[in-house]
Structure to design on (355 residues):
């Protein structure tokens, strides 16, 4: 049976915000289902999400946000959801801001829609390190794959059924925000962006510390560089 | 040319390595599939010990005029290859653990919905 929209939220110690996010989602998008993928939080995230009416499961924190999102994609695929939206569990993405993106996906404007904080005036301003990383990775994605994105590390991504199936059926797919973009683009899926306001964090601390930021940038750069399409690599060789 | 002592030492290291890996496999502490690089390394040590003249010839062909350095480079290279092999194993095991973890997570949703 085909279901409509699944919103997945990877969390770790987001007990202060997750309840209100889930309730807000049900009020704003009544037809959606919400799946919280918790990394075995040390306090009440799991309980708060269940109380708010979400389906909740645990995915080992060591698998990272990527492992949690992959689980959500697999669930959406097996349960037959038409659309999947992934948002952060820290309250930075408001459900009401998600509506135009969902509508764009329903109108089949793209297979993959990214909520970008850079296409308008967003409340949240990333620091210099993060801005530089995002700009560099976005530039590489544009140069290598011809995909124009401004917010390649956005935690707000929406997929349609075709893309859900594509990611779920690839046993070797390792999800990261950046990898999802170029993998989808490389496979011929239509990737586009819409503005989404990103609020300042409501509570808790981000896992994206300076060290984690450097690591994130390094792994993504290695990842993109090693995935260069053969035609581009040959082209590069002939220039030497 | 390797001295007799060096040849004996090389053979001994190879044989000890073979014995240790063999014991680990017999005790089910090591899968057969993961012994390839270790057995190959042991074989290299034994061949170096048994064929010192060949070792010298190979060293000269490669432009290494002191066979001891050649052996050292070979050992380091073999260890690096072994480490790469182990990294491949770790990666595939991590992928398998991840797959199982995802299945467990999905089963939890199923059981909590049923309950």
């Amino acid at each position: 049976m085909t279901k409509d929209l699944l919103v997945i939220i990877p969390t770790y110690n987001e007990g202060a915000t997750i309840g209100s996010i889930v309730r807000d989602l049900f009020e704003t998008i009544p037809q959606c289902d919400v799946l919280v993928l918790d990394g075995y939080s040390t306090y009440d995230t799991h309980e708060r999400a269940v109380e708010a009416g979400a389906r909740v499961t645990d995915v080992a924190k060591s698998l990272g946000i990527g492992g949690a999102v992959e689980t959500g994609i697999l669930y959406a695929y097996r349960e037959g959801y038409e659309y999947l939206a992934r948002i952060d569990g820290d309250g930075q993405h408001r459900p009401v801001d998600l509506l135009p993106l969902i509508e764009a996906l329903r109108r089949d404007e793209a297979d993959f829609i990214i909520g970008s904080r850079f296409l308008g005036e967003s409340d949240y301003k990333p620091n210099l390190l993060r801005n530089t990383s995002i700009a560099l990775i976005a530039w590489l994605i544009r140069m290598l794959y011809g995909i124009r994105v401004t917010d390649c590390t956005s935690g707000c991504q929406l997929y349609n059924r075709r893309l859900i199936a594509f990611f779920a059926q690839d046993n070797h797919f390792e999800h990261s925000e950046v990898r999802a973009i170029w993998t989808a683009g490389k496979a011929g899926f239509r990737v586009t962006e819409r503005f989404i306001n990103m609020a300042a964090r409501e509570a808790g601390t981000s896992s994206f510390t300076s060290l984690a930021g450097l690591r994130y940038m390094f792994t993504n750069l290695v990842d993109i560089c090693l995935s260069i399409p053969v035609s581009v690599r040959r082209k590069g060789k002939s220039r030497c | 040319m390797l001295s007799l002592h060096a040849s004996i030492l090389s053979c001994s290291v190879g044989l000890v390595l073979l014995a240790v890996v063999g014991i680990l496999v017999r005790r089910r502490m090591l899968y057969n599939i993961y012994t390839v690089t270790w057995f190959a390394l042991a074989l290299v040590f034994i061949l170096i010990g048994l064929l010192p003249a060949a070792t010298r010839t190979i060293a000269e062909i490669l432009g290494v005029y002191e066979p001891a350095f050649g052996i050292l480079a070979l050992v380091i290279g073999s260890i690096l290859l072994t480490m790469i092999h182990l990294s491949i194993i770790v990666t595939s095991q991590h992928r398998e653990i991840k797959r199982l973890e995802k299945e467990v997570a999905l089963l939890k949703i199923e059981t909590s919905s049923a309950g």
